[in-house]
Every structure is written in structure tokens, then in C-alpha cells.
Amino acid sequence: MELNLKPAFFWPINRTIVRAFKFSAQLFWQRAIFRVLSQAAPRHAVERAIRLMLTPPRQPFSDEELAVLEEASLMPVPLISGRLIAWRWGRAVDPAVVLVHGWGGRGTQLRAFIEPLLARGFSVVAYDAPGHGMTGGTESSLPHVLQGLHAVLDHLGPVHAIVGHSLGGAVAAMTLAQRPAVKRAVLIAPPASLADSSRRIAAALQWPEALRAAMQRRIEYRFGLKWSEFEAEQASGEQPLLVIHDRRDREVPFADGHRHARNWPQGRLLETNGLGHRRLLDDPMVIAASVDFVAGERP
To answer: pLDDT at residue 87 above 50?
Structure first.
């Protein structure tokens, strides 16, 4: 089994660490390794923690995902560090809606939104963030993911709306606050606190606080960004914002979505119960509510 842990620099815990690895040998050994390194070689422990935090998990594309991509137009997007792989469905002259996946994901995870958006007269753009999917790369980070979304928006020109899941929702909120020309956004299960997520990971791996704090300082120094800059309350704008979050989400607490909605003057919260963190992306009600909101209707 591959250990698939959510980086602290990206809020939600990928695959829910406690649920997926609580009784696994992998988690046992990771805890043991960090326990020994923290005492015998603290510097190596910090380096190992940083590598874990900045390495997104990778999974092969399913046949269904590849079939969806065959219907799209490939749209490489230039980046300072190379290029980003993106796709467009629909006509370029139609208002664009950008789909943003979460940590360890890829654009095709939001494929259920494509046809309903096309039916309402939008074109749809999805992409794989740096370090993810077909864009590739062995390392990623919040600055990388944020840079990727800005690159896509710059490449497209005017964009009508953004729909983001998990980390993609948090990044969408930050981007929306910086780009008033984007008319609205839907955040699905968005994390709200970088610090809170890092503490959940540290607790799952039984890291001493000194290790977690050292890892945080090193990452902050590397990117020149304080984690406090990425709390939900730091990003707000005047556009309409819809937040959809499930009460039983075990990866990103429901309270995080509430924080995002409460922080935006035109923020609204749609609560679900029993869909968890990922089934939201396939739920007909969630998709219909999102598309209605993007179209300017009451969800």
C-alpha cells in the first residue's frame, strides 16, 4: 500500500489519514521512523517531513477519464517553469468556466460538471496543476497550484466562473479575491486553515510539535509566505460565492466551509449530509446546484 498523505501546505488530508491508515503497517512504520529521527537526527526528520508535504500522490487515469479527454481540445498553458496541460470543452466564444481539482487529483475528477455546463451555454476548461496528472513534475506546493490557476486565467482571457474542489476550492477563493473580473465561484469542500491541517497531520503521524513547527518554518522560508496568509478570512471579495460542504466530511471539517461562506459578503452555504468529501463530485444535486449558481440562478 502506498502511503498517501496530505501535505500540510495544502490543507485537507488526502484520503483521510486517520481513516485510511489508522491500523496500517505503513502508518506504524512512518510513526516509528519519525520518532527515531526526531530524537537521533532532527535535521533529517525535518527534511523527510518536507519531502512528504511537497510530494503529491499520483494515480493512473481511468478509462472513463481518458474518454472524456478525447472529447476536448488540448490547450497547453505556458508557465515560467514549463507548461501546464489543460483542456477545453465547447466553443471558445462561449463564457468559460474553469474547473480546479484538489491535492493529488486531476482536472478530470470534475468531469461530471462538464456536460451540464455545456448544456447551459458555457465552455469548460479543466487542467492538471503543477506536479499533478499529465502536467507532471515531482514536487508541488500551494504557490505552484496558485500560479497554475493564474496562468490558466491569463491564457484564457475573460472567465465567467471557477468551480473548485477541496484544495482547488481554497485556491479558487484566493484567486477570486484577486480577480474581480471573474463573476462568481463555487467552492466544494474547501479547507479554511493551513495551520489546522498541519496539526491534524502531525497528530496522525505522532510528530512532536518541534518537528511540525520546524517543517512549517522551513516551508515558509522557502516560499517566502507565512501560513497565516492562507486562512479563509484572508481572502474575500464582492462576487457571489457558493460553498457546498458535507456535514460528514472526514477530510475537511464542515466548519471550514462555513468559514468561507461567512467570510464573503455574498457567500452562501449549501449543506449536504452523507456524501463525505469526494462523492460530492458525482452527486446530481450538488452538480445541479453548482451549475444553477454559475448560471446566475438560485441553486
So the answer is: yes
The H-or-E segment that residue 87 falls in is strand 86-89
User: Grid coordinates standing for 298?
Assistant: 438560485
| SS3 state of residue 227 | helix
Of 41-45, 54-58, 188-192, the range with the highest mean pLDDT is: 188-192
Residue range of the domain that includes 17: 8-55+194-223
Distance of alpha carbon 152 from alpha carbon 156, whole angstroms: 6
Q: How far apart are CA 296 and CA 180, in angstroms?
A: 16
Over 90: is that where the pLDDT of 149 sits?
yes
Cα 183 to Cα 241: distance, rounded to the nearest angstrom: 9
Are 86 and 202 in the same domain?
no
- Together in a domain, 179 and 282: yes
> pLDDT higher for 245 or 20?
245
